[in-house]
Write a structure and sequence with these properties.
The protein is of the alpha+beta class. It is built from six helices and five strands, in the order ααββββααβαα. The chain has a five-stranded antiparallel β-sheet with strand order 1-2-3-4-5. It starts with a helix and ends with a helix.
Amino acid sequence: MLSDEVIADYLKPLETQQVECIKLIRGMIVEICPTLTEEIDTGKWFGGMLTYYADGIFMYALGPRAGGKSTLHMMAYYMSSELHAKHGEAFKKILSGKSCILFKTIDELPVESIKDIFEGTPRFVVTMKEFMEARKKKKK
């Protein structure tokens, strides 16, 4: 995970509600998924966002958006019809894409749904590794 100093610098220019939301969600990631690799993305899709990987597999992206909003991208949610069925209603008002929620305040966040998705990270990583291995074998 990134150092406290790097995170403090990252949060410094953000609006108060963005800082609160990002700290809350990042705190859950750090607690529930401590083995993920955290970085500040410099690429096209998640540029300027905190991104999280497990063994090189993209898992989550978290960061600020225009208008004082914040966003969370969840690959596990994107790939799982089971999670869509289980948490779709909770995300309905803030879902802004297939795996992305857009929110302005902590009060908008379905915290228990987000925690459940984070808790499933190890299972998702195994599934993704199996999927990628099967693709490699199929291409041969």
